[in-house]
Amino acid sequence: GFTYTTESCFSDRGSLKILMSSTVTKDEDVQRGLENSLQVEAYERRIQRLEQEKLELNRKLQESTQAVQSLHSSTRTTGTLSRDKEVKKLNEEIERLKNKIADSNRLEKQLEDVVALRQEYEDSTSKLKGLEKLCKVLKQEKEDIHKQLDEALERQKSQAKDLKDAHQQRKLALQEISEMNDRLADLRSQKQKLSRQLRDKEEEVEVVMQKIDSMRQEIRKAEKARKELEAQLEDARAEASKEHKLREHSELFSKQLEGELETLKVKQGGRTAGVALQHQQELSKVKTELEKKILFYEEELLRREASHVLEIKHAKKGMQDSESQQLALQKEILMLKDKLEKAKRERHSEMEEAVGTLKDKYERERTLLLEENKKFTTENERLCSFVDKLTAQNRQLEDELQDLAAKKDSVAHWEAQIAEIIQWVSDEKDARGYLQALASKMTEELESLRSSSLGSRTLDPFWKVRRSQKLDMSARLELQSALDAEIRAKQVVQEELRKVKDANISFESKLKDSEARNRSLLEEIEGLKKSLEGKYRNDSDPKLHDLQDSIFEYFNTSPLAHDLTFRSSSISEQEILCPKPEVTSSLSVTMSSEQQQEEPIRAQQKPQTVPSPTIPSGSLSVQKPKAHQLSIKSFSSPTQCSHCTSLMVGLVRQGFACDVCPFACHVLCKDSAPQVCPIPPEQAKRPLGVDVQRGIGTAYKGYVKVPKPTGVKRGWQRAYAVVCDCKLFLYDLPEGKSTQPGVVASQVLDLRDEDFSVSSVLASDVIHATRKDIPCIFRVTASLLGSPPKTSSLLILTENDSEKRKWVGILEGLQSILHKNKLKNQVVHIPQEAYDSTLSLIKTISAAAIIDQDRIAIGPEEGLYVIELTRDVIVRAADCKKVYQIKLVPKEKIVVLICGRNHHVHLYPWASLDGSESSFDIKLPETKGCQFIATGTLKKVPSTCLFVAVKRQILCYEMHRTKPFHKKFNEIQALGNVQWMALFRDRLCVGYLSGFSLLNIQGDGLSVNLVNPSDSSLSFLSQHPWDALCAVELSNEEYLLCFSHMGVYVDAQGRRSRLQELMWPATPVACTCNSSYVTVYSEYGLDVFDVYTMEWVQTIGLRRIKPLNVEGTLNLLNSEPPRLIYLNNKLSATEGSALTVPETSDNSKKQMLRTRSKRKYVFKVPEEERLQQRREMLRDPELRSRMISNPTNFNHVAHMGPGDGMQVLMDLPLSVLPSSQDENTRERARPPSSNLSRQQPLQQRGKPYISWPSTGAGESGVTMPFRSTSDPDQEFEKEPDSDSTKHSTPSNSSNPSGPPSPNSPHRNQLTLDGLDQSTCDA
Fold first, then answer.
1. Cβ(599)–Cβ(809) under 8 Å?
2. Confidence of residue 1107 (pLDDT cuts 50, 70, 90)
3. Which of 668, 665, 649 is nearest to 725 (CA)?
4. Cα(631)–Cα(1164) distance, integer angstroms
5. Chain centre to alpha carbon of residue 129
6. CB of 980 closer than 8 Å to CB of 990
7. Quick check: pTM over 0.70?
8. Which CA distances in Å does 106 have to 120, 506, 1315?
9. 777: which residues sit within 8 A by CB, 6+ positions away?
10. What φ, ψ does residue 435 adopt, rounded to 5°?
């Protein structure tokens, strides 16, 4: 049927009169159309009659349907005679209806003809009248416009005269202003001359001051020299005293010797005189030598004393001269100051007089100009008002024209409305036809019912009650049958599962047997290979090496170009079944031994012993060998090494490339790669640098799709994936037809990770993906956080199902190879969540520092806070604005901050970290605009030193525990704006744009530029403005300099020490370092490099993370919500200093609550929230059951109804079935718990990168009951109310054999027992 809105021209037939009367009244010939209107009214009356007849027919139809129902419910109610009469009546009614429909059709045709004629007539008359009116109006408008134009021209002439006068006055004013400007320029030139003279005098004063400073320095040097001479004098006196003592000792010794000689002479009297003479001669020699030495030392003493006296005299003279010069200079300075002050006063008075005269003249001219401006503005306003009038008149004319156009449009609108009325009439005709067909169908059904009925019987008044009972019974029977069918289906599924398990066990045993056979075949193949290669070496070239059996051989058979020549990742079955001669049978062996899933393509492969190609010896001697013309190049897209097939990772200068042939290699592979240019085809097809034992080489590569950053729902984006060097690299491809990815990796996953896994996905895991894409998607999972343990998952979409199987098989095979060869991931940093992410301060942290094992200092926008991790106490340590860097000086008990809008350095006492009021807040005013601070201790300075970098200037301070707490002792200038700074022994290492340097802090030596300009291999650094990230001191003779594009090793003189450079896989955002490792922060996570071996050690996929301190121990992860991450260095020497990380959760409702102290807060759940949680626990049995164990025996549970005295067993919501029940009931109770086990993967839907599983009720390990879709609170309220018969159990109901009624609350429990796994999956 049709529905109509009231009072619309399409539905209300009464509106036809209004339409016709409105059109007729507009015309002048009203009487001519009266006859037509009378005919239209007659037609309308007929239409109304037809509608009434239609309503009667509908009513009769309803009565007939009711009669049919009554005939259907009661059997043989009416006799055959009454049926015949009714059939005749209905036939007669049908014939009447047909006649009326024919009449209505005729009337409609006549109406259409009349309406068309009327429309044509009205159109012609209205068009004629409209055109006549338009002509008259246009003539009048033309005359008015001519008059207005004449008036406007006269006004324009008068205004032109006024404008000329105004221009003349303006010229005069401009001339006066130019004269004033000339005078001002003269005065300014005089002022500039005076200021230049002032500057010259000031420069002279500065020169004098510099001379004074130099004289003071010379005086200090003279004092130093005097002190040195005094020290030398003391040393000389000490030496002289020593020599005097030695002389005395020698005299004593000589006397002793003489006495011994005399005794010997007395004893040996019988000896010859010759021996005595010899002894005497020796004694005389010794005496003469002693006398010479004594004389020599005395002369030296005298000479040194004389020189010392002379030096002291000279120093005193120099001191006196410098003092006299200083006094003279001070006098000159005083005289110059007086002269300067006098000159300043005179100039100031002259300037004031000149400025006063200028102000007077300016004010006069200003008043004149203001008056003229007022006159001009009044005239301008008059002109504007006149123009507005003209525009208003023009608008009126335009509106009238638009009205005329609208009248034309209204005529077209009336025509459209009449067409719609005609369409409506045709629709009514269709509706009548539909009703006629329906009536005929109903009569046929009535006749069939009459023929089928056997006799008449009186109507049963209770047929409705019986019918509802029958319907209830049928519904119950259907439910019962559905339950039985589901139970049977579950049993069938269980049997199938058992069969599948048995088949899996048998398949595993067969797999083991096949693996054993494969191993034996492998050994045979290796023996054959060795023998063949031995023959080949003897026959042909001895340089060809023995390649191991690996997956790498299969995927690297094609030659590699130095530019990006992508090989398609899809391989046809013919290529796999018929491998090339260069490819050995290792593919089939590795695929069968390393992978558990047998695929149809791999199942067809059989081990074949393919002999190696024998190359004749003459073929190599034909080409003349030439050496490669290698040079270091920067590649714009991911490029493989021609020697080892690995990716040349890096942003710039990734490796060597030949200028003649397409050969490219790593810096390390240069010496071991073949030097013949071009490379022989057999060597290009079989790269010699692949090493399976260490995982070196590219296993697979191809185009894939990864979800967009917002999730699978937003779609997929293209990427280029490479499995290389135990890692999975992903490179984003730009939108469009471009197939060239950039060198910046969008994500890197390490296959050596303990949590690394590859798996297919179900439709429930990727709900936003299309059905066609689900078989082509697989998931790669890697570790994310150490505590609480979390993983990140990445969804990858391939072109087809076989391609997905290939990727999954290769990744699983490589992982098993790595496990066999024990190539484990070296874990340096263990990321842990340092504190609860619900703390609001974490969102705005920009700096942090570790105080001790239990406390950390954080710097949000509100000030400095201290978090006591184990006690959940938060202390407001300092009331300052945004903190940018925190440095703790525990030795001097001082906290150093960069904070505030202007980046000033502030000093706070150590006691403020405990919450006590700070005794001082020292702001260093000269540190405005500070960008970096560093601390350290020097050998000659006992206290801790603070170094503050302000652009190029570095301010050096000594820190003290007592007042004034700091003392500035030096200022150093760097070669550029300081970007990084650290203390290396007694020298300060400073990093700036494209360079590093070692500066001497105390000014006792020369500074060293660590990027030596004389080293041509480092000249590229000066050509590119690269940021300095950090530097590491490896030893006294070697340093690692980390820039924004690479890392360079240099020696103590700034020359390159290693040819290889440290390459970053992605653009670094920040960089932190310690003595052994460098951690590079990029968009996709962290990369850790060993500074000694240059190995890429670890990759952590924490996206959008930034360091909060220089050491990189505390970091801010910009996830939702933001998290404070602690990087626990597993290999650090100071294990006792590790931070004690508390347990955290995402759903904790803790808040910062004030304590009695103004500066201390407690981070805990408020009392109101705890009470609310307790009420919820008592109200909800699911929450209550976590603390109280479930009951196992229900024999003691009884419920007495009011007055009926029947004992009824209640169904408790968390009942555990007794062990005596059969297996079917146990299996029915299992699906709710299995549903919980699926919650964790389901929570990761649509999250391609990082998924944070919620730590809610699903993780507590409690088996939750599977409830219906209704509100659990409502169910709990309904269950105790079991007084009525509706809530009785099936055993106590009035109909024990049948199922419970639909109103019973136990209906849900019965159906849920039978729903089993299918409902849980849904």
1. yes
2. very high
3. 649
4. 63
5. 73
6. yes
7. no
8. 22, 85, 64
9. 760, 761, 766, 769, 795, 796, 797, 798, 804
10. -65, -40
